[in-house]
Write the structure tokens for this entry.
Amino acid sequence: EIVMTQSPLSLPVTPGEPASISCRSSQSLLHSNGFHCLAWYLQKPGQSPQLLIYLGSNRASGVPDRFSGSGSGTDFTLKISRVEAEDVGVYYCMQSLQTTITFGQGTRLDIK
Amino acid sequence: QVQLLESGGGVVQPGRSLRLACSASGFTFRSYGMHWVRQAPGKGLEWVAVIWDEGNNKDYTDSAKGRFTISRDNSKNTLYLQMNNLRVEDTAVYYCARTWLGAFDIWGQGTIVTVSS
């Protein structure tokens, strides 16, 4: 099983300021097709998770361009260029390189 | 529009069974792999099971193997999760999700399963 480790687990941010979340995997997520099998989700309070980033760095449809994903191998980062109030919730990374999919523990983003 | 709608949750005693259903609409259901993901109260997301397009290939998390069965009826655009010998630790919100390019691009609203004596 690939273990996914996120940091920090709690992230208070002032509106308008940037935010960054790290996700590390216990083994490389590089697929033989050249893509990284890493996705990011946001679960807003009381809602189902929603896809933000797929294949490591591709924004999902409708996701604001203030969200960006980067990284390679075992180290990945989700960045929010300017946090807005609507970005509050828990962020999860997820690997799908192996059929037994695993998630990170989640990072709770709050507004200061 | 593209939508997933779960049903079948409820309160059940340990050792009993429950079948969840996930009705899909707005897309060609048979063309996508489908997953079940759960979230225990106050906890993170846990992947449970996957079934690929024609239903011949499936996989489960270790805690579900031998107790849960994922299946699909492409003629009814419906995904199922048969859960037997339920345990207290199976208590969670169960989501169905569509897989696309290795990610879950569509999620249902979830159905709550409570296992308690």
Remarks:
- The two ends of chain B are 40 Å apart (CA to CA).
- The first strand of chain B starts at residue 3 and ends at 7.
- The mean pLDDT of chain B is 96.
- Chain B touches chain A at residues 35, 44-47, 50, 59, 61, 95, 99-105, 107-110 (CB under 8 Å).
